[in-house]
């Protein structure tokens, strides 16, 4: 019996996924030219809206292997840190909007003082009012947003892992959904397996950066549901037929979810990731909305090996289908071509998953290929920067922006601007300057303002090629300060403000250390209080942030949930209830950058290998760096410094050799806000 070729597996998966779609769910072929603009001038004039998607189900994914969770960095509390940053960003934008131009109220609308309404063109006046008006886009417990630029969506969307077309497209198998079925079983039996074996993660899969509990599937399915809901909202708002669109429409979305996804391949969980949220979102856009060209920009500190392996397989199948149709022009193609995807990643080549220097992983994280074999992939390695001037005048414009230039080239080569284009950001904040030093211990970082400016540049790309469609999905980021500052800068970058007044609307001092310290103190949880307290001399933006935080964080982590959470039984008893003399408290604050120590264990790679050569792999650690391969189409790269492996850049106090552990880090006992 002949065995179907491997290259046809994705085609079979697509057929299986489409069989689950309701009739008429797949968008029809678009007849308009790629450069055709949306009909209706009012749709073009309307300022673009940004929506924040929150999914409380994501709080259910917890570590239950032991009572000690101090070494777990991928934790539910990450989402609160993100929400604090989002609330602060909204507060700042509201403050600037209310004070800009010495405005006064005329006829219920905001008009700049000294500018009578008759002096403005009708369209300009309408646009100015749209940008400046106070709009109640969200209301909970009497709290209203005072800006029309952003809305907050509390998502209740969820999916069925075994019956969702986009999930099956990415993680399904033509021979049965083996991985997805196993994942559900692992979570269901997690308590029992911990009691019997000491771990809920099966052999062959690294347990140090993965964990499950019985409610993890709810969190995973809720995360996917929120991403797909954001995709639907963004595309519905940008279809030419939608004209002005509904009042709560959005062209841009930030989805604050966990667990992250970009390390997960087709059936290889890794690095806290069990499903690939962004890849599933792209598949959903393709299957349900006819999106054919996708741009994925990954700015996590770590290479998204799972996303790249999935993108490679999809592009490979689409390329095969294209070649078959070209060589048989008179015949009906056996199936619709799949999507074309550009994947671009900016990451630290010395960190997970490449830290052990494994050739396959380092080579994959250094790939630069643009068109050959139907592949569009660009990897750029983060470099140390000496000052912010060095970063913004050298590294960012000469090297890091190549990620967007390559995306532009991909879109130009495949048809230019069009209604079939969608842009995603795999948005990790762990490259932030405020991340735990032990997480970014190779000192490949970016200043916090990177998340503002790169987002603005990505929005410009989306405006030109994708009708403004942009969905950003949370990936990594582990210290509270990195998450808060990064989310704050990122949301400010997504807001549609007049280019001429960007400096007036967005002040990068908002996320400097002084203001972050104030924010951390203001939002620090206090025992027995439902709301943090402010001093009498607090600033207005801090008070407003505390008003907005419950809107975003309406379901905070309850102490009862932790108290009732199952933990494995133990026969050990406490010998001494007093702390030894000279010891420090082992508690850490909820805010602040913190400097975690690395746990002393050694990561063991799984012995099972991968299903395919292109699948994501795991890694241990390495002190070596491999230069990227040469390419005729390779964008300019930063030179490899001769000091990179020397001691000239060794952080102060880093005298001891670092343990060989990648992502399992422990905040130090002495950390305080």
TrEMBL record:
SUPFAM superfamilies: Arginase/deacetylase. It comes from the Eukaryota. GO terms for molecular function: histone deacetylase activity. Residues 581-605, 615-631 have a biased composition (Low complexity). Residues 179-492 form the Histone deacetylase domain. Residues 640-651 have a biased composition (Polar residues). Coiled coil: none annotated. Residues 17-49, 568-673 are annotated as: Disordered. One of its GO terms (cellular component) is nucleus. This is Histone deacetylase domain-containing protein. It comes from Hydnomerulius pinastri MD-312.
